[in-house]
């Protein structure tokens, strides 16, 4: 038997392995799990060079797999003004003014997590002018689909008089012929974000191509530091695998540099973002990314698209009219034939596809495209994904299962589960459809693989808060109880994430031969209440056998 680098004893190991669900000890060597069992047998594998960790009865789990996040964007926003929970004009004004005073040199005051109804209605540039007339200001909705800018920001970005943009993107114009301040979707926000110097970070979301102009060496080095900050944030939260949901070759180059410098603390999968304006020829970039990055630390091999927007702004695509907007069902970002052609070609190239689809109409269109791809290319183990699925026609659930589609769900997004209020979302869905909204259990019971995630920085990245949200989500009036058991929720953060990335034979469970990716929590998760889980800390994160986060004096 090889010498163990690390053994953990006196633990409550939840191995997520159906053959051996529980143990009290685990041994690691050369980046892999070598043995799992009881304290005495595992201690026998330690020698003088082995680090022995006494977990003192705390839970040990496979490292959390975050199945949908925007790592670079979130990292870049760690220092922005955080507006989640700020309600009313006075509170918004106070927050923006304080932040502006303490950041006198920023080219743009950027706020995150602004509520759509923060002042009881959508913000205007005049509202923001009244707060800060002489500094450019832009605040983003938590979902990142909408932003609101003041007059100075619009003027400096050159969009005060509007600009024509790709489908689904809009600089909302007022009766006075000038922009109202509301900027819908990425191309509309891009000019203001560029003003803030955030265009390099946003390129993977805005275009899927490398930043243009290509960053200088100093800019690249600065971006590496931003990414490292994001990775440190992930390590603290026990995340050992990250499935990024925006991307370009540049993102992988940064991560690759950090890897070569020994600073890559989680495994990251980065897609090619097939943004609006892309053509089938651009899939060549995705194939190159897939070829270049294909190991357990850095990989690509998938294409991300948006089919629709979000419910709150009425840009999610619905099968029926929005109850408050007769005649309006949202506008899909790709026609049925366009998406079928993209899906078929990406599938033919052996790429996985992940599509943001929030409304039931968008979900259906994505399924139609996956079906055409299968008809043309024949069945394969593609595990194409649908991101979010906030509303679904119940008849389509069986289609997910039949097509082998993974449901990527963000439990913290369910209105009323934690940070996101019930309104305006639930009214926009309409009470007659609450039974089809934010399904977890119905999907799981239909045999659809679930991969849980946060969509950070749209929502809190902390998986323990995600677990709390999944446990405590409301039962909407007239709807079935969609709460899953703790075990099933943990599975969606571990084994489910592994299935979603075709890596279930290497991670998501703690068993011999699997990657040594694991966390030690600050307590016994099975004995804790949902509230206690939400505030529980991660004491130690181990990725590839290396300790990448250790709470001070935890052991
Ligand atoms: Zn996302």
- Beta-strand content bin: 15-25%
Radius of gyration: 23 Å
Q: How many distinct helices? A: 19
Mean pLDDT comes to: 96
DSSP strand count:
26
Q: Could you say which small molecules are bound to this protein?
A: zinc ion
Q: Cα distance, first to last residue?
A: 26 Å
SS-derived structural category: alpha/beta
For the report, how would you describe the main beta sheet?
Answer: 6 strands, mixed
Shape: globular
**Unreliable residue stretches:** none
Can you list the strand order of the major beta sheet?
A: 3-2-7-24-25-26
- Helix coverage percent of residues? 25-40%
Structure, explained:
The protein is an alpha/beta fold. About 30% of the residues lie in helices and about 20% in strands. A 6-stranded mixed β-sheet has the order 3-2-7-24-25-26, covered by helices on one side. Helix 9 links the parallel strand 15 and strand 16. The protein is globular. The mean pLDDT is about 95.
Give a concise summary:
This protein has 555 residues and is an alpha/beta fold.
């Amino acid at each position: 038997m090889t010498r163990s680098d690390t053994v953990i004893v006196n633990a409550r190991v939840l191995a997520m392995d159906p053959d051996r669900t529980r143990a009290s000890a685990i041994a690691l060597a050369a980046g892999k799990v070598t043995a799992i069992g009881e304290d005495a047998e595992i201690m026998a594998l330690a020698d003088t060079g082995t680090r022995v960790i006494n977990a003192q009865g705390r839970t040990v789990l496979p490292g959390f797999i975050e199945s949908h996040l925007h790592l670079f964007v979130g990292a870049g926003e760690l220092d922005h003004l955080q507006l989640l929970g700020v309600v009313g004009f006075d509170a918004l004004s106070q927050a923006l003014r304080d932040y502006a005073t303490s950041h006198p040199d920023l080219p743009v005051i950027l706020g995150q997590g602004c509520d759509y109804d923060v002042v009881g209605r959508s913000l205007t540039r005049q509202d923001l002018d009244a707060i800060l007339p002489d500094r450019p200001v832009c605040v983003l909705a938590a979902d990142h689909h909408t932003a609101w800018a003041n007059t100075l920001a619009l003027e400096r970005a050159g969009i005060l008089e509007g600009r024509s943009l790709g489908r689904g993107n809009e600089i909302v114009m007022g009766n006075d012929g000038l922009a109202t301040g509301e900027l819908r979707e990425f191309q509309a926000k891009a000019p203001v974000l560029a003003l803030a110097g955030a265009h390099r970070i946003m390129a993977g979301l805005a275009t899927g191509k490398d930043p243009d102009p290509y960053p200088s060496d100093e800019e690249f080095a600065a971006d590496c530091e931003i990414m490292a900050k994001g990775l440190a944030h992930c390590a603290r939260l026990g995340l050992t695998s990250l499935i990024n949901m925006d991307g370009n070759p540049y993102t992988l180059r940064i991560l690759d540099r950090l890897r070569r410098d020994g600073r890559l603390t989680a495994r990251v999968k980065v897609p090619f973002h097939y943004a609006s304006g892309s053509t089938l020829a651009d899939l060549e970039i995705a194939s190159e990314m897939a070829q270049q990055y294909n190991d357990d630390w850095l990989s690509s091999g998938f294409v991300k698209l948006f089919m629709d927007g979000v419910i709150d702004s009425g840009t999610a695509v619905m099968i029926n009219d929005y109850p408050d907007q007769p005649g309006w069902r949202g506008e899909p970002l790709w026609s049925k034939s366009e998406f079928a052609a993209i899906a078929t070609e990406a599938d033919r190239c052996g790429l996985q596809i992940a599509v943001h689809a929030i409304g039931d109409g968008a979900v259906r269109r994505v399924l139609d495209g996956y079906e055409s791809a299968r008809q043309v290319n024949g069945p394969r183990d593609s595990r194409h994904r649908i991101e979010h699925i906030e509303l679904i026609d119940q008849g389509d659930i069986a289609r997910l299962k039949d097509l082998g589609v993974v449901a990527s769900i963000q439990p913290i997004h369910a209105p009323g589960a934690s940070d996101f209020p019930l309104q305006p979302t639930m009214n926009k869905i309409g009470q007659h459809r609450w039974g089809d909204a934010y399904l977890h259990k119905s999907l799981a019971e239909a045999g659809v693989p679930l991969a849980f995630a946060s969509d950070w920085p749209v929502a809190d990245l902390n998986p323990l808060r995600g677990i709390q949200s999944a446990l405590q989500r409301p039962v909407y009036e007239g709807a079935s109880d969609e709460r899953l058991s703790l075990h099933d929720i943990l599975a969606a953060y571990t084994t489910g994430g592994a299935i979603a990335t075709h890596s279930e034979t290497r991670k998501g469970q703690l068993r011999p031969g699997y990657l040594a990716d694991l966390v030690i929590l600050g307590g016994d998760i099975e004995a804790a209440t949902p509230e206690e889980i939400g505030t529980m800390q991660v004491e130690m994160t181990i990725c590839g056998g290396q300790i990448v986060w250790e709470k001070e004096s935890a052991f």
